[in-house]
Amino acid sequence: MESIEINLDLPPKERWHFAANYRTEINEIIACYWVDLADYVALIESVLDNYKALFIPSSYLEEIECIANYCDYTADQILIANLYYDIVKFAFACTAFAFEKDGSIWHARNLDWWTENDVLKKYTKIFTFTKGGQTVFQSIGWVGFVGVLSGIKPHRFSITLNAIVSDEPPMMAKPVSFLLREVLEGDYHFQQAQNMLEQTTIVCDCLLLLSGTTAGQMLVIERTPQSSKTRQAANGFIIVTNDYKKINYKSNNQSALKDTSCGRYNRTQLLLERELPSNPMDCFSILNDKAVKMQITVQQMVFNPQQGLLEIKVP
């Protein structure tokens, strides 16, 4: 898997100069996003200047302006593409689990996201964000995407995001993927990360699996834009797919992710109850189970925050 370093010591407007080598990838990915975003663009553009001023850090805007130099899209168009989850999210699914074994916590996840021509699968990269020559955090994503959907802060914690569909209206607030980056980039420990993920007002609902380095540090934060409930592990593990377990919310929305959520959850639970994995390959075996993995799975990953380990496969 290709790994790219992003040097946080550089001014934001210089951090993505490497994107010059990825023009085709950036154009293909944004074009793919744009198909799903087309119905929303006019509304978003009408409020975008105000939204940027209120909720997007200037450093991220400068990074996006740098990326715009190396593709066929404007900085505003790239920003809108970066807000894909907050705007659409219906193309997401995901199965994730964490467990504790032999004094160590493991965190595994499938990212399920439908796209034309497998562009997200084939252009997946590992990004290592550094400062002073040291790794601050790592994320799994794509060139041109400045937020985080899956990431690890070595020796502190890891975070992954799962979609949840509800009828609750979105808020004018911080984008979820940008919040995850802020938590990973800052000098935060597990409890501080939990507090931020629970308390920060966000655009839309989501499910966040947060795993740490010491006993019991694994939990699912169930989010709506303004509220949260946190679910703790039981029997040495915790699972999240695409439905609420703690928040009492009923939705009539139907989608592939909702229709398969319980089946993926139950199968993962059965496999973990049968035997906890002993290594990353065992985790990938669960992720690849035919009742867990979906046809739209684009990334499979395993984290161990205590060890600072990240392993990824593209199915």
Summed up:
The chain is α+β, with helices and mostly antiparallel strands. The protein has helices spanning 23-37, 41-55, 58-68, 75-82, 84-87, 119-122, 176-185, 190-199, 256-274, 280-287, and strands at 3-7, 95-101, 104-112, 125-131, 134-141, 150-153, 157-162, 206-211, 218-223, 228-232, 237-240, 297-304, 309-313.
Describe this structure in words.
This protein has 315 residues and is α+β, with helices and mostly antiparallel strands. Helix content is 33%, strand content 25%. It has an eight-stranded mixed sheet, with helices on one face. Strands 11-2-3-12-13 form a five-stranded antiparallel sheet. α1 crosses α4 and α3 (58-68) crosses α4 (75-82). The longest helix is centred in the C-terminal third of the chain and has 19 residues, at 256-274. The two termini are 12 Å apart. 44% of the residues are buried.
